[in-house]
Specification:
The protein has about 500 residues and is of the alpha+beta class. It has 3 domains: about 20-290, Type I PLP-dependent aspartate aminotransferase-like (Major domain) (Aspartate Aminotransferase, domain 2), CATH 3.40.640.10; about 295-405, Alpha-Beta Complex (Aspartate Aminotransferase, domain 1); about 425-505, Ornithine Decarboxylase, Chain A, domain 4, CATH 3.90.100.10. It has helices spanning about 20-30, 50-65, 80-95, 105-115, 130-140, 165-170, 195-200, 225-230, 240, 260-270, 280-315, 355-365, 390-405, 435-440, 475-485, and strands spanning about 5, 15, 95-100, 120-125, 145, 150, 155-160, 175-180, 190, 205-210, 235, 250-255, 320, 340, 345-350, 370-375, 375-380, 425, 440-445, 460, 490-495, 500-505. β6 (about 150) and β7 (about 155-160) form a beta hairpin. α1 (about 20-30) packs across α11, α3 packs parallel to α11 (about 280-315) and α11 packs across α13. The radius of gyration is 24 Å and the shape is globular.
Length: about 500
């Protein structure tokens, strides 16, 4: 049996057996129980479930859909199998302490901000953050300092943030208490977390990493370094996105003394359901065991055929694949400030004269569904659940797309010229997200929205960076950018009027 010692523990610490699945096993035993169920859920181990639901998920899943009955522990005060499962996860992922999440990374990120920031505390936020960070600001009352990430005009992508940009922000705003970084991005672009952690800690701030797309990084040396190993104080991972846990199952990992763990525990109880789904929690236990005992071998298999796919796709002109050299920062003292998770496969379809949305619709008809289409790109996620045959099917579909691209008029969305982003490098909004959320709101014609404050973010895809964040002023440049994306068939989140004829704004006194 594989026996490991928890990272950061003294030599006298107990050795943990990573082959065990304490929570999964406890749930399996409970599902086999013959006790009369006079407790929730109402379907009573499937006996009262809809036949259609039974046909879809099976009775085994319904029998395991149980609440906090004796033997299954309590997520918010664990003393049994959940506590052991979380300790095993901390050991496997290299953390000092791990919490399971049944409400996704969203709840973990919100709790991380609540645990480190209070009303009036300043926190550095890159503009490409997930909506959950903005929700955390509303809940906590913290004051954001917005930082524009490094941007690649060639690929129309936000790469991430650098340690130099973060240090400049900490010098300009010495009151910053916490720094949030998104790494990896959706496209697998990772920031230099080790360099960032050194800077953040030198200025006595806390580093929080949204590592939702990186739970696999810890388990293979050919992948970018994971955030905990690189020195972050807290990392939130969506275990379901790349590993084998159920959708919505995630983890929070912490290390060091900068995170108040009791406050984090209380914050997690606030942001999660008081009735967590044990199937989700048990899937975290199973995913951890799988990666701890065989993760490197599984990822090696995936990387081997992905690298072959990349080599073969490089000949498929005129479309191109995002490669490590494409994210080098030209002219910088250290051009390799970003690294790439090669299990993410992003292709630029703009040279075909079609949008990513058009390409996505066409590939779907060919039996291939990718993760993320934008105006210019398609991004696919390859995991240990994919095979070389999947890569072959994608490559064949892309060949067909290249051959048929100029006959796809019935699919085509309008294209747009790539626009210069109207984002300031570093800014503090005139109103905090919490103030904007609770302020009186109104609706105005989009053409007249200039100089109003925005209550929620306006985020066009591409490039997936909000042009207006909560509490910021709506500018003429931002309106022009949003209209161009809308006319080209792009997606804009944060709008109630899908025609973009009107915008919600903070009412002026």
């Amino acid at each position: 049996m594989l026996m490991t010692r928890p990272g950061g523990c003294h030599l006298s610490a107990p050795i943990l057996d990573q082959t065990q699945t304490p929570l999964l096993s406890a749930l399996a035993n409970a599902a086999r129980s013959q006790h009369i169920a006079l407790h929730t859920p109402g379907h009573k181990s499937g006996r009262g479930a809809s036949p259609a639901l039974i046909d879809l998920v099976g009775l085994a899943a319904l029998k395991a859909d149980l609440p906090e009955i004796p033997g299954l522990d309590n997520l918010f005060a664990p003393e049994g199998p959940i506590r052991t499962a979380q300790a095993l996860a901390a050991d496997a992922f290299g953390a000092e302490k791990t919490w399971f999440l049944a409400n996704g990374s969203t709840s973990g990120i919100e709790a991380a901000i609540l645990a480190t920031c209070g009303p009036g505390d300043r926190v550095l936020i890159p503009r490409n953050v997930h909506q959950s960070v903005l929700s955390g600001l509303v809940l906590s009352g913290a004051v954001p300092i917005y930082l524009n990430p490094t941007y690649s005009a060639d690929w129309d992508l936000a790469l991430g943030v650098t340690s130099e940009a973060i240090e400049a922000a900490l010098v300009a705003f010495p009151q910053i208490k916490a720094v949030v970084v998104v790494s990896p991005t959706y496209e697998g672009i990772c920031s230099d977390i080790a360099a960032i952690a050194a800077v953040v800690h030198r200025y006595d701030a806390v580093l929080l990493v949204d590592e939702a797309h990186g739970p696999h990084l810890h388990f293979h040396p050919d992948l970018p370094e994971d955030a905990i190993a690189a020195g972050t104080d807290l990392a939130v991972q969506s275990t379901h996105k790349v590993l084998s846990a159920f959708t919505q199952a995630a983890m929070v990992h912490v290390q060091g003394k900068r995170i108040n763990r009791d406050r984090l525990r209380r914050a997690l109880a606030m942001t999660q359901s008081s009735s967590p789904n044990y199937l989700l929690l048990a899937s975290l236990d199973a995913a951890r065991q799988q990666m701890a005992t065989g993760g490197k071998a599984l990822l090696s298999q995936t990387l081997d055929w992905v690298m072959e796919l990349r080599a073969r796709h490089s000949t498929l002109t005129p479309i191109r694949t995002l490669e490590p050299d494409d994210i080098a920062v030209k002219g910088a003292a250290n051009p390799k400030q970003f690294s790439l998770d090669l299990t993410r496969f992003t292709v630029d379809v703009a040279p075909l004269g079609i949008t990513g949305f058009t390409a996505d619709e066409y590939l779907h008809q060919l039996g291939v569904t990718v993760e993320l289409p934008t105006l210019t790109h398609l991004t696919s996620i390859f995991t240990l659940g994919n095979t070389a045959a999947d890569g072959e099917q994608l490559l064949a579909a892309l060949r067909t797309l290249v051959e048929q691209a100029y006959t796809l008029e019935s699919f085509c969305h309008k294209r747009m010229a790539r626009l210069k982003q109207p984002f300031p490098r570093l800014s503090q909004p005139p109103m905090t997200p919490r103030e904007a959320f609770f302020a009186p709101q109104g609706t105005v014609p989009t053409s007249s929205a200039e100089d109003y404050l925005r209550p929620v973010a306006l985020c066009p895809y591409p490039p997936g960076i909000p042009v207006v964040l909560p509490g910021e002023v709506i500018t003429a440049e931002a309106i022009s950018h949003l209209q161009a994306v809308h006319q080209a068939g792009g997606v804009i989140t944060g709008i109630a009027d899908r025609t973009l004829a009107t915008l919600q704004v903070v009412a002026q006194p």
